[in-house]
Amino acid sequence: MTATVESNRQRGMSDAEVARKVDHLLSQMTLEEKLGQMTMVENNSVEPAQIAEFFIGSVLSGGGGNPTPNTPENWRAMVCAFQKAALETRLAIPLIYGVDAVHGHNNVKGAVIFPHNIGLGASRDADLVERIGRVTARELLATSVHWTFAPSVSVPQDLRWGRIYEGYSEDSKLVGDLGAALARGLDGRRADGGSGVLACAKHFVADGAAGWRESPIGEHAPQQGSTAPPQDLSPAAQPDAALGQWQIDQGISRIDEATLRAQHLMPYQKTIDAGVGSVMASYSTWDGIKMHAHRYLLKDVLKGELGFAGLVVTDWMGINQINSDYYKCVVASVNAGIDMVMVPYDFRSFISTLKEAARQGDVARERIDDAVRRILRAKLALGLFDQPIGDKSLLESLGCAAHRQVAREAVRKSLVLLKNDSQSLPLSRDLPRLLVGGRAADDIGLQCGGWSITWQGEAGATTTGTTILEVIRATLSDSTAIDYSPDGQFADDARAAVGIVALHEEPYAEGFGDRADLALSPDEIALLQRTRERCDQLIVVLIAGRPRIITDQLPLLDALVVAWLPGTEADGLADVLFGDFPFTGKLPFSWPRSMEQIPLAALRASDEAPLRECGYGLTC
Ligand code: GLC
Fold first, then answer.
1. Where are the alpha helices (DSSP H) in 437-498?
2. In the chain, how many H helices and how many E strands?
3. For residue 515, with 0-12 CB atoms within 10 Å meaning exposed, 13-18 middle and 19 or more buried, which class applies?
4. Which of 33, 111, 443, 572 is positioned for an S-S bond with 29, CB 3.0–4.6 A?
5. Is residue 404 within 6 Å of ligand 1 at its C-beta?
6. 42 CA distance to ligand 1 centroid (A)?
7. Ligand 1 atom nearest residue 283's Cα
């Protein structure tokens, strides 16, 4: 382990000493310095000089907020420029830089990208998830990033939701166990006294219980545009039609308090017990109140009942949805228990509005001091005051083979075998010929999914890693003839004992992934049929962020492997396809027969069993 940064606890600073340091610092701060600490700005909307001028406490890269060129070194240079400016302020309070490292340091080209949470849910391996957290923390610190907005501890109830794959499972206990494991891993202090980063449990609370057509965005929404616009403002990233499809995301959770507590609150208690230092409020609404203004749940329940002593941060422009009057948005959110606001653009307006609210007494000075105390405590606990710049020597290990081995293990353990007739799997290495069909068989971008290099993710050779086709080629003997066709249009003479088809979803994130229909598309069905006609055994590898409706096509297949969104290390798939490792993955979500069995409530009310139960998985 390289130079370790002693957290307060390792340095022997008791909580009392931390409190004294915080109070001493607070007593020296002006109101402007305090308000600056409560302000988080996105990296393309602020210059380093403004960090100093407005005492900004945090900068983030939203999805796709990458430097150009997108290299680890350039990331480090970008983050350090902001930090340098913060350290030149009167009290030299370090800023904290945050990103969505939700499956590795996934914005950075060359970083290891792990399976998305749904695949880790299939692994049910908390130790593995903790190790993923530790590797992710090291790759973050290599670029001097000290905060990730992970783990998502959503408990998704509707497979049509575009954030389904960010959830570990429909099972609250599994979500809590794996969310706590990631929090422990990210907070490296607990494991080996090493450097840690600030983890962030999100989105508080019950974001996974929002209902269909309840999103405040989308063609059905009552007031189009009255909500936070998506992050990437480039026209290509959010054509109006795509915005129109938002149906669930950021919507209304129509559940009673008993269900909220039992199903959606419990994972937060587990991550808090694991030491998570921040929580992000959800865009969603419960009991008629936006979560960003929900005083009962943020202050009384999260901070009071659950004893959360860390900081609560908003989502991207999350307070803007509270009211059409921005002054009321600021007052309602901060008084409800929000400590730091992800503005993320117009920081001047936020700071001046909060200053006016403080002057008017609409936001008490004690509330501001409590928010700033929580922020300073988190920065002190991270060791940011001692070492505000991440250890540069960690750059050498970013994307290294050892880190990729952890991701390869995660891919292996995430695979779920749903069908394996006539022992089609495992495959022999000495096949005379093999047909491989589907774009996703040779596309890193498709196997990574959303939140990968860009916010929405995209097809193509987007980063370093291995594709399914590459690892199949590397595993098979040289004598095997491989016919590859992205759309199944094989040569006339192409016929083989075995055919593999990789089906996929086009990458998506957030509401852009809200889907009314999860059935296979006509093109996917045609690809299956074209390949079926030319092989004796047809094996399907499904690259998707959720279960798809495949009931009608299942008889066509001899084997079905669910690979979810495996990330950059497809080697893990070959390890299992060719029998070096067994299938051990178990479904983290029930697999519906039809759309009529979605959401989960409909499935539970149905008198027909799902196609496969949550927890199902063949071994071989
Ligand atoms: C997004 C997401 C949240 C993410 C944040 C910063 O809109 O809702 O999960 O952490 O903004 O990118």
1. 444-448, 468-475
2. 21, 17
3. buried
4. 33
5. no
6. 11
7. 8
